[in-house]
Amino acid sequence: MIREIVRDPLFLAQKSEPATEADRQVILDLLDTLRASRDRCVGMAANMIGEKKRIIAICQGPLLMAMVNPRLVSKSEAYEAEEGCLSLDGVRRTRRYRKITVAYQDQLFRQRTGSFEGFAAQIIQHEMDHCEGILI
After folding, report:
1. pLDDT tens digits, one per residue of 51-91
2. Neighbour-count burial for 23-53, b at 16+ CB within 10 Å, e otherwise
3. Catalytic pick from 4, 21, 117, 127?
């Protein structure tokens, strides 16, 4: 189900809770909402659709990928970036890392670890910040 995008900074500033298998519908709704917003968005966190759960979704080329309970394992090559957000107006500066490794569960709750670089790494970091209540 496609959900409305939350723009309330007080809600978005709250930390998300770990996701469980009971949150499978949240994952599907997040993927549906990202798919419907692809023309203006490349990643999304569950709090952006009103769910305070540690779930993010990103565009990987033509594919969409959900990451449940993502955790940053390593990071390298810091740089300054400018980012926008579907939940906020304007563009803001932030610090990102060119290379990251993330431990997460896939949408079937299987444990995974992935290494990401460049723009994909930046998107994941942005969405993981949402899970921490950090708004750029």
Report:
1. 999 999 999 989 999 999 999 999 999 999 999 998 888 89
2. beebbebbbbbbeebeeebbbbbbbbbebbb
3. 127
Supply the pTM of this predicted model: 0.96
Which H or E run includes 117?
strand 111-117
Order of strands across the sheet with 88-105? 43-45, 55-60, 63-85, 88-105, 111-117
Q: Beta-carbon neighbour count of residue 71 at 10 Å?
A: 13
Separation between Cα atoms, residue 48 and residue 96, nearest integer Å? 21
Is there a catalytic annotation at residue 127?
yes
Q: Which residue range(s) make up the domain with 38?
A: 9-131
Kindly report the CATH number assigned to the domain that includes residue 98: 3.90.45.10
Structure tokens at 129: 């910040």
